[in-house]
Amino acid sequence: MTILRRRLLTAIACISALPLQTVAFHTPSIPMAYRSVPSEMKPMRTAMFLRGGGSGGVRGMSAGLTPEFLMGTLAPLCGNILGNLMFLAPMPSVLAARRAGTLGELNPLPFPSLIGNCVAWIAYGLVVQNLWIIAPNVTGLFIGLFYTFTSYTLAIPSVRSTIVRTLAAYGAIIAVASAAVATGQLPLTPKTVFGLVANLLLLIFYASPLASLATVLRTRSAASLDPLLAASGACNGAFWLAYGYALRDPYVAVPNGVGAALNLLNLAAVAVFGR
């Protein structure tokens, strides 16, 4: 095993282990069905385990499509489905590169960012005890690991080093947050610490769409934008924005609102400049 590959495995292990160990020791024993649910909505929780907010799915269906059901159950369900589909969007390109034995035009740098983002959101989901948040990010973590390892084996040494450095940077941010929570050095709750970290990493992840949009505005051509992916991203962000609003959770609502807005801007660019 090469030195870079050992560093890659070490970085991934550190990113994954530190926040989860910290959360395990700093999460109070509160039933998962009650986590992050506004007090006025707690009596309406479902018997199903996948709650976290809104009225119960079974009772909501029998009582009609109430706002609580739509925003507390249907919105995160649709967000989970769309989120997983978006995680899978690069899969054909990654598999094609694997068959060809070369990266070609495939950009591998978003893949380690996907790992860091998913780990941060898993940690946040564990803190607030919300399976709607945990589930899609567990899927995204494994998909990101596959993308990263596949692209790493096909990349030239300089790109491999960049992948490792990217993972190390995400790992350092998460490690500092985990250490702060574990030692109690910050006057902040674990929810606040991991919420801020998850939002920070997601905003970094959004830097790529912003760069693409800047290129479109400069060249006055939207050929580099995928309207279907942008539409999916806008809908996904809107669903999670609604769910974050239902939970009264700005750490869920705000970044997804930003993501929805960026994807709407991409759609507007496609409409204005064409492909």
Molecular structure report:
This protein is an all-alpha fold. Helices cover 75% and strands 0% of the residues. The protein is built from eleven helices and no strands. Mean pLDDT is 78; it is low at 23-63.
Topology:
Blueprint (H helix, E strand, L loop, with lengths): L2 H24 L30 H7 L3 H22 L2 H10 L9 H19 L2 H24 L2 H27 L6 H16 L1 H13 L7 H21 L2 H24 L2
InterPro entries: SWEET (IPR047664), SWEET_rpt (IPR004316)
Protein name: Bidirectional sugar transporter SWEET
Keywords: Membrane, Repeat, Signal, Sugar transport, Transmembrane, Transmembrane helix, Transport
Estimate nothing, just give the exact number of structural domains.
Answer: 1
Gross geometry? globular
Uncertain spans, ≥5 residues at pLDDT below 50?
A: 23-63
Largest sheet: none
Q: Tell me the series of helices and strands, N- to C-terminal.
A: HHHHHHHHHHH
Main structural class: mainly alpha
Mean pLDDT: 78
Fraction of residues in β-strands: under 5%
Q: Count of DSSP E strands?
A: 0
Give the terminus-to-terminus CA distance.
44 Å
Any idea what the radius of gyration is?
A: 20 Å
Q: Please report the number of helical segments.
A: 11
- Helix fraction by DSSP (H/I, runs of at least 4): over 70%
